[in-house]
Write a structure and sequence with these properties.
384 residues; seven-stranded mixed beta sheet; disordered N terminus; 13 helices; alpha/beta; 13 strands
Length: 384
């Protein structure tokens, strides 16, 4: 064998054959050092490991779960767009309402911190907004006027209720800084500030803001929403027809315009001040019910018509915030009402030469707290 493969090539003749030279690679050589020839090198890439093969492939398609997540994320884009549009509409409307209030020329009241009781002694809740609505028997320009009606409107977003609390004007009560007197005398002595201080001092409930209205404005509010529907008893209808220039009928749902609603609210000599406050709360509840069916243009018209005629301690942005909060509450919340003092905690009395309503202040303070700040609040109107 050695002579055949490694001998010199013999001369070529007819009897001799060329023996090809065979190169046997070294078995210890690396695989990449093999000589594949030019044609083989053009057709085949040398093996460079698993990592190289993965790089040569196309990027893998996303897993089925990833494709589902991408598709799910994309399907919410219309919802986000709608939410964004609603936020923009709300922001623009809120700003327009605030600017309208700022240039409406409404009257401004000063409501300072109560000097007779500390804030820690007052019940409060961030989800409850207490607004004292004061109705005066005039245009409200004179501080000597007595408050004809006092209603605390509580917007309770925690329990989803609008709560109306009437305070009887003849309640015999301690006016801080002064002596005992009827509750409505506190407005004559110190305006809205002293009235709010008196209620806080005696009943320990925080009052956030005050709104002062006169009877002319009250009729405008009722007319702006197209009137209200309330129950009118035969006795109430006869009294109005006999003592005023208005004529109304009795029934379970009688439509009243602003002027007739005002006359209805002011009935007193027919029965008592208890029933008078009950009628006032009834009309306010009917007004809130009417808001539910009113369109946005009518509500904005009522707002722009009413705001210039009020007096309040709130700034324009606070007015806009309360307007939106009250509008939302009127649409979705139930209305409940009560009266201070209650029947069980009060009795008729006489002080000097005047008839008054004596009351257990502490018991009424507990009743007011439970009514405003708990979920068990229910209407407790007594028709004496």
């Amino acid at each position: 064998m050695d002579d055949i493969y490694f001998s010199k090539k013999p001369k070529n003749n007819n009897n001799d054959y060329d023996i090809p030279t065979i190169n046997i690679p070294d078995i210890n050589a690396k695989q990449n050092d093999y000589n594949y020839g030019d044609s083989a090198r053009d057709n085949f890439a040398p093996y460079r490991g698993k990592e190289k093969k993965q790089k040569s492939k196309k990027s893998p398609s996303p897993a089925p779960q990833q494709r589902k997540e991408k598709k799910k994320k994309g399907c919410f884009s219309p919802v986000r767009k709608i939410a964004l549009i609603l936020v923009i509409i709300f922001a623009v409307t809120y700003l327009l309402t605030a600017f309208a209030a700022a240039f409406s020329g409404y009257g401004k009241l000063r409501l300072k911190r109560n000097a007779y009781i500390t804030s820690s002694q007052l019940y409060s809740n961030p989800f409850v907004k207490n607004i004292l609505l004061i109705g005066v028997d005039g245009d409200g320009s004179e501080e000597s006027l007595r408050s004809d009606s006092m209603i605390l409107v509580s917007l309770d977003t925690l329990h989803g209720k609008i709560k109306l609390t009437s305070f009887m004007r003849d309640s015999w009560i301690q006016i801080p800084g002064h002596k005992f007197a009827k509750l409505n005398a506190s407005y004559a002595l110190g305006g809205a500030q002293l009235l709010a201080d008196t209620l806080e001092y005696n009943f320990k409930v925080n009052i956030n803001d005050c709104v002062l209205v006169d009877f002319t404005m009250f009729t405008d509010i009722i007319d702006a929403v197209g009137g209200v529907d309330v129950e009118v008893t035969p006795a109430e209808a006869r009294f109005i027809n006999r003592t005023t220039r208005h004529t109304i009928e009795s029934g379970n749902s009688v439509h009243l315009d602003g002027a007739k609603a005002l006359v209805y609210c002011r009935i007193r000599k027919l029965d008592s001040d208890y029933m008078r406050t009950y009628r006032q709360r009834k009309v306010i509840a009917a007004l809130l019910e009417k808001v539910k069916g009113a369109d946005a243009f009518r509500l904005f018209g009522a707002f722009f018509n009413v705001v210039p005629k009020i007096k309040t301690n709130m700034n324009p942005f606070e007015i806009a915030c309360v307007a939106f909060r009250a509008g939302f509450s009127a649409l979705f919340f139930d209305v409940v009402s009560t009266r201070i003092p209650t029947d069980a905690t009060s009795w008729s009395g006489t002080e000097g030469s005047q008839s008054v309503v004596e009351l257990d202040v502490e018991a009424n303070a507990r009743h007011l707290y439970e009514f405003i700040y708990t979920a068990s609040a229910e209407s407790s109107d007594n028709r004496d």
